[in-house]
Design brief:
4 helices; alpha/beta; 220 residues
Amino acid sequence: MTTPPPPYDPPSGYPYGPPPQLPKKNYSVKVLWTVIVIVAVCFLATLVVNIGGSDDSPGLFTSSQKEDPTDPYGLAVALEPTDDPTLNDPATYRRLTEAEFDKAMHPSSDLEEYPYAFVGERVILYGEVDEVGSNFAHARGGTYFEATLSYHDLGPLVSWSLNSEDAPIIGIKADLGDLAHNDEVEIFAEVRRPFLTGEEVFDTPLRKPLLIAHMVRVIR
């Protein structure tokens, strides 16, 4: 009589033999792709900010903020003439109120939160010439002068007024005419996007209004 074989005892208790061996996951490849994706996303975000998404990108003379002028001389020499005949018409300019003048002269350090409302406006300002630019006498293109400004004519008292501000006035030399220290002037200016001065206070970048004069009249 034949003796039956002993019952099959599978290893590891698996009912049909040893458990199948699953292929090992290649975690190093997964980690590498994750790093590549993160780097790509960061690069694209930085690129978008630098091209135009940054609030601090003036976009006035160049495409890069780091290359934009931060001083009146640099702004002046980069200024290009315009052939718009209406810029020579005093009727296209308006006087500012005291509140408007104060806001125009103190552009916010956060233009995204507090947009600058005067870009493109044509305004009339009054002031006294404090200093003419270093290239003023021989300039054939853009130049500038520094002035103490107000929203109305204060004559020689403008420098003592609480409603006055010192600011550079940029313009083509032919439009600015011949100016001298202490000249009291009426300025017909176009307001453009404020420019970064390159200076900071408590890690906050400083801005000044960019005023492009198309007519300047010496009052006295």
